[in-house]
Design a protein that fits this description.
11% strand, 10 helices, 6-stranded parallel sheet, 2 domains, 238 residues, alpha/beta, Rossmann fold, DNA polymerase, domain 1, binds magnesium ion
Amino acid sequence: MTQAQATHPLPNKADFAHVTDWVFDLDNTLYPHHVDLFAQIDVNMTGYVSALLALSREEARAIQKRYYQEHGTTLKGLMIHHGIDPADFLEKAHAIDYGVLAPDLDLGEAIKALPGRKFIFTNGSVRHAEMTARALGILDHFDDIFDIVAAEYVPKPAGSTYDKFMALHRVDTTHAVMFEDLPRNLLVPKALGMKTVLLMPRDAHHEFTDAWEKRTDEDVHIDYTTSDLTGFLSRLVG
Ligand SMILES: [Mg+2]
């Protein structure tokens, strides 16, 4: 058992009885980390940077990752430093094979059964969220999708982006919960009074792409961790 599992117990149904708004990150949250859909996007982004700056893939990848770390998304760095068209970038980055995602009917039923509104809140595009959720067979269960365009290209974990989302949908954060796979994206939700749930890879020894994305022992802002979203949600209803 990992330390995370030891310190974060199974969900207590009463702990979620007040929740009326359910907010889900998309990538590596609504589908498991091991599906690795993001690896395809990652390759496309490297290709984009390589073509844009006429660099080898290796050089391009270093810049891609630097922008990701410094600006929250590779896209934001490319907009600031190279003035690229974000729509063009998003289209090319998300030109991937969604066929690797299988319909997840159990997850769909679990989401459908939750009382209240359900949102997808992603640093990707609406199209990517729709393609992903449709492939999973869960798209119809969501009330709305808030994407990087709605966020005016300022990605999570920027506080202003959470504020935009909450204001747009009139979310009472004291009656809301956020599900995320990146610990840093749960800092603001916790500060706003939301319940926070961290999605962990099923394989505890999974190598994260970037070590700095990993959770740390200082993650007191995380109420629960789980590697089984469907199982977690199923405990909260019925
Ligand atoms: Mg994610």
